[in-house]
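name: query_chain
kind: protein
chains: 1
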Amino acid sequence: MSLEKDHKNTTNLQFINPTKLYDPTPNAYSHISIVENFNRVIHIAGQGGENIDGVLSLDFEQQVIQTLENIKNALTAADVNISNIAVLRVLIVDHDDQKHKILIKQIEKMWNNTPFPACTLIPVPRLALPNMLIEIEVTAYC
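structure:
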């Protein structure tokens, strides 16, 4: 099989972007994540942009930053890190190109030039809390 990119890391995850599919890396995700030889599966419920007091900024970028910080805190509580993440499911209220660019920029910062997990972005009309603009669910393996 001819692969455009085939990255492995120490968590038994492999990320693949086949040459017969477009290169998704500019959009901060991989087409395929393969998980092998794992001991634990970690499912992190959809995290939003609320801080520890449950307060949501009205600014989309601030919510994205807080959402990713909440994910890091959840991963730490499960004794894993971003290198263990295989899949992200992102829900965005009133998704548009500007919000997509903000999301990509923040995911690139968090993954810091390492392979991106597989990701599905789902535009939605609203989320669980009033003023909640983003929610990200995570599946990690270790």
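note: The chain has two helices and seven strands.
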